[in-house]
Structures are given as structure tokens and as C-alpha cells.
Amino acid sequence: MSRAASTTGAAATGAAATGARPAGTGPAGTSPAGSRLPGWARGRSGVMAATALGCAVEMVPGLPGLPLTLAGLWLLLLAPTLVWRGTAARAVSTRDGSLLLAVGLTLITDMVVALGVNTLLPLVGDARPLTRTVLAAAAALTVIVLGMFLPEEARAARAARTTGARPGLPRGALPVGALGAVALLLSVAGPIRLNNGLGGGVSTVALVAVAALLLLVLVRRGRYPAAVLGCGLYAASLSLLLLVSLRGWYITGHDIQREYEYFQLTLGGSRWNVAAYPNPYNACLSITLLPVSLVRLTAIPGVYVFKIVLPLLFALTPLLVHRTVRNVAPQLVSLLSAVFFLVFPTFYTDMTYLGRQEIAFVLLGCAMVVVTDTGRPLRARRTAFTVLLAGIVLSHYSTTYVVVGVLGIGFATDLLWRLVTRGKRRRLRRRDPLTSSRAFVSWWMVLVPAVLAVVWAAPITHTSGQLQTTLGNVYQGIAHLGHGQATGTPQQQLADYRAQTLIQTAGKRAGGSYLPLSTVNAYPVTAVPTPNLPLTAAGRALQATGVSTVTVNGLLREAAALGFEALLLLGLVVTLRGRRKCFRPARDQVTLTVGSVGMVALLTVLPQLAVDYSVQRAFQQGLFCFAPFIAAGALRLARWFGRRSVPVVCVLVIGLFLDLTGVVPKVLGGYPAQLQLSNSGQYYDVYYPTTQERMASYWLSRQIDATPQGRPEPVVQTDSFTFSREQTLFTGPVMGDIFPTVLDRNAYVLLGTTTVVQDTVTIYYQGDLVTYRYPMGLLQSTKDEIYSNEGAEIYR
Predict the structure, then answer these.
(1) Phi, psi for residue 331 in degrees, rounded to 5
(2) In whole angstroms, what is the distance from residue 440 CA to residue 454 CA?
(3) What strands, in cross-sheet order, belong to the sheet with 716-718?
(4) Predicted confidence (pLDDT) per residue in 171-211, tens digit
(5) What whole-number distance in Å separates Cα of residue 715 and Cα of residue 529?
(6) C-alpha separations of 317 from 91, 322, 324, 342 in Å
(7) CB burial class (10 A; 0-12, 13-18, 19+) of residue 174?
């Protein structure tokens, strides 16, 4: 029996046990989107005509925004996806898989086309190549050329979309669509209310609606077609992302603030010039050239490209996980895998602040679909996989490095596996396809992305400083493994940080640039714990029973963190060794899971690496590989409940979702506030930009601009997070630190809203956020206050 046949048989067997249909059969095999296209869009002639029309619309000056938005979305996303779908169908065998893969190829095409325009036109004298007319012409020409040479989707596949189609809506479309629409509406209304200073009740209800939607999809998995299930997953994931991405009227978050700065530099000059700003952020085409193309051709403001369009694309990742697992497992396991992927907190607390990683993860998800789909020739799959890896290199450096590490460990695991089972291979060939199947990942597939990453970072963009730092951290971590300095308590971290700053400022302090130590020592700093939400009526009622609400919240979070790890281990054991298996994974799925776990472990034992790429982000990335094993572990654990095992798993997953997203802490209180539900909490304090801060920054910029010629520009000091929020508003030298030991005698000191209102400042040290009480008396005794509003102050 062939590997593809055995996989299909295993999926069919598991589907029969769970009431789901095998992939690609009947209504369950329909694609989530694009299954019923109008006649004019099915053939290449219709796509070409619409592309020419879209290009013509872009060339007309003075058009309102809506026609440009429609034309731009067609040229950049829809038309290339239709053109690439025939090629994608050569690498994956499912209709929805080919559509998702075509989206990934489209994103790579958009980045490469903009890169080509940006590189070639300056050679003929065009210093501002990234304009609407040029990008529109290049996008249209690319679609037309690709349409002329790329293969079309097979007629049989197109005919299969309408053969046997029932009139009207598919089963389940009404309840899933209605609940999805409610969740999306609330996920937009909730952040808007919070941004206007109102409460988080609507956002809390939105999360409850998302939970209900996920529960509906899980319970009705055997009755609803795959298209409906996919739409439900997409609506749930997008709702989660919008609840966070729409917070704040400006760019809100951590990395996204610097991403937006480099996007603005590219947009303002209509040219991507990495030589002028050699920074790894600037080398990520996913946050420079791709957003610029979207802004130019769609007329969507840049803020909303980052806050809405990129999350719209990233919301496809749970669908990619679902399709990846569905290739080898029944519907229940694949749906649980997708839900575990979006339930993990990094998905909705951090990913919307990492635009470059959002695009890289979409491409990585497409690559994993190719890995588990054994219904196409190996060469075609490997080619598609390598192209997607090249797209990841262009999108995000850290994701690339982790992928290379995962591939390397996975390839080594496969070699070791084959060496150990070499004597048993003949005997096990028929019983265990994992033992005899041919590996997908080969040595050159590890080497190619590694070489591309080095070439892109070093000779092309000259941004290899991040890579050198990462490699240096790896060496230092290995050389001093077991001898590293413990992070200690927040107060100890503040003491360590103070000692570092004293060493760094010793020379200039002796010259009188900094405040004398005798003055600074009179104002010590103390660490401040993150405050909890006040107890609600439900929390007080729980407290009255003798159970600590704070303890309950903490234990639930710790249990969730340990639960992911325990279920992963259990799932690996029962899947590889158990007699009754939830699914039969592809061989490379197992080896890449080992590689992903290895990278998470490496980041855990080497804290220096975790500073650059957190363990949580590595675990989120690893879920592309090992989410089905977590699902298998959950199902195996629930077998204790007999016939009720599946309902128990569904209830536990939804309960986990409600707790991790903040609904349970919001109902009880006694836990730190989360940004998507409150106008308070650590993330709100350090990442949320306020109008008062912007007003103070504008005022200070005007003061600096009025400095008489011949005098040096004065230095501006502010805390690191206020600097990150407002860095695009400053000109001249700015220092993102106001720790007492680094205060410059003559610098302006801008205090952000959190410091003015709460007297606290937060620093990022050794991978942790450390908050301390700021000694306001130091500023008041050594400087004069020259500006004040209700949320910002300036001293000099």
C-alpha cells in the first residue's frame, strides 16, 4: 500500500469513528472560500480583463477611495491568487489547500514585484519608483505574464465545485454565519468603546461569542461541510485578532511601532532604501514593500493596513493548521489542532504587534500544508516548500532562523530514526508506514534557507548584526551553560540594571554630563508589582467561601501552561506507541515536531536567545507542527469519560479559551488586566499611546526646531516605551531611558502618561518587564518643569 493510500485510509477510519467525512469527499471536501466563483472569473480571459480594468482604474487621477480599494485588492491579492491556484494544485491535492497555498504564493509575488520595481527603476533614473502608477502597472503586468505561462486549474477540479451542488446555502451556513457576524461586529465595537474611555463589557461579550462559535464548529463538525467549518474558524480567529489590533487610535503594541516607522520611511521616500537605514526591521519586506504596495494601490491608510489588513491575512493561520492536520487525521483532531493554535495566548496578545511575523507565519503554515499532503509528486512539493521558505527569508529574520533550526534538528532526527530501525525496516514495512516512508526534508532543504538567510542579511541588505548577535548569544549560552546569572526578583534586576548603567556612564559622569551620584543615591528606586483587577461580586463571593480568587486565577494560568506541555508529551506517546491511535502522522510531521520541541528547549536553557525570540513565540511557531499531538493527548486523556470523552474535551477547550483570553479573570477580578478588555494593566501602560503624549511630543519638537543655528541640538530623554510610542514625532538625538543614573544634566525629560498618573516606569531587562516607582523628587530638585498637560510633563 502506498503512503498516500495508507494516509487516506487512516483518515477515513478516524473520520468514521468521529462522524466526520474524509478529506476531499462529498461536501466536507469543499474549500472554505473560492468554491463557487462567477463564470467570468473561472477562466484566464476573465482574470486578464479584470486585471486590465483594475490597472486602468489605478491610472485615473482623482478617483475616490472605494474604486481604488477594490482595484488594488484585485491586483495585489485576488487576481494573483486565481492565477497561482493551478500551480498550487500541482503541489497539494485538496481544493482548499491549493487556495491557501495560492494566497501564500501571492504574498511572495507582491513582495518580489515591489522589490523588482524598487531595484530596477532607479537604474534608469527614477528616484521614487514606489508610486501608484508604477506599482499598478507592475502588478497588472505580473498577473498577465503569470497567466500566460502558469498552468490553469484542472477542468475536473473546476467542474467538481458545481457537480452535485445543492441550491441555496450549505448546511450550517446560517448559524455559523450569524454567530460569526455577531462575533466580528462585537470585536470591532468593543475596542472602539475602550478607545473612547468606556468599559470592556462589549469586548467580553465578543469573546463569549467567539467561544460559542468555536463550540458550534466542534460540536457540528460531522454535519456541516468543510467550507462552513472553515468560515467559522476564520471568523473566530479574526475576531480575536481585531479585539487587540484595533486598540488605540494610533499604532499600539511593541514591535509594530518600529515596524511602522520603517514603513513610513519607505512610503515617504517612495523607495525602499535599506542602505540608508541598515536595520533588520528594514530588511523585512513584509512590513516595508508589502504595506507600501497596499497603501499605494488600495488607498487604505497605513495605520489600518497594519491594524486590519495584516490581521486579515494572519487569521488564515488556524485554517492552515486545520488543513495541515486534516491531510493525515480525522476532522475532530484537525479542528482541535486549529483551536489549540488560536487559544495559545501569544496568538492574540502578541502576534498583532508583529506584522513581519504575521506574514512569515502565513507562509510557514502554507509550507506545513505541503509537508503533510502526500497526494502530489515529491519534487513538486519540495519545490513549493523551498519557495515558501524563501518568502519567509524576505518576511522575517527570526522566524527564518528558528525554521532552519527546526529543519536541521528534524533532518538529524530522521537520520537517527532510520539508523535505529534499519534492521527492522523490512519487517515493519507493511505495518508501520512511518518506518519505511521516504523523508520529505532532505539536507539541501536545510541548507537552502540557511544560505538564503545569510545572503539576504549580509551582502544584500547588510543587516547581519542581528544574526551575529544571535549567533554570539548561542555561543555564550553554550559556553556558560549552567553558569548563567539568575534573573532574580524584580528588585534584584533593578540593582543589576543600575550597576550596568553606572559602568556605561562612568566616563561622562566624571566629566559632569550626568547627575552626581551623591544626588542620585538620595532617591532610590523600588520595584512595583503588577496590580490586579479589583474583585467583582462573583470574585468576592468565591473569596467568601474561603478560596482565594487571586490564587485560583494564578493556578488556572499555571495549569494551562503546564497542560500544553503535558498534552504534547502524552500525544506523542499515544500516537507513536499506542494501539488505538487518534491519527497516523506523516513521518516528517513527527521529525519536525521533534525539531520544534528542540528549539523551544534551546530557548528555554539559553535565556540570551529568549531575549531576541521569546519561548512563547517559539511555542506558537511550533504549534504548526505539534498541535495535532496536543489534540491527540487531550482526546486520550478524555477517554476516562467513555462515550462522553468528546464533549468533555470540547468543554475543557472552551473553558481554557475563556480563561486565557481574560473572560474568567474579568468576571472574577483578582488578576492583572488584559489590554483587549481594559484600559489598565501592564500592556496598556507600556504600549498604549495617548493623545496627551502626542501633544507633548509635538510641542517639544517645535521647541527643538526653534534652536538657534550654531547651537547643538538638545538631547531628549524619555522612558523606553514612551519613546517607542512616539519615536516618529521626534527629531534630533533621543534617549529612551530616564533611569536616575542616566539622567543628562541638560537634556529635556519627557514623562509619559503612565509616569505622570501612576509615578511608575517600566524597563525591559533580561527578557522581563520590570516596573519601578519613579523618584519624582529627583526631577523636581534638579530640573524645571516647562510643560504639563493631564497626561504628560516635560522638564529641563
Answers:
(1) -60, -40
(2) 24
(3) 734-735, 716-718, 748-751, 793-795, 785-788
(4) 999 999 999 999 999 999 999 999 999 999 999 999 999 99
(5) 31
(6) 19, 9, 10, 9
(7) exposed
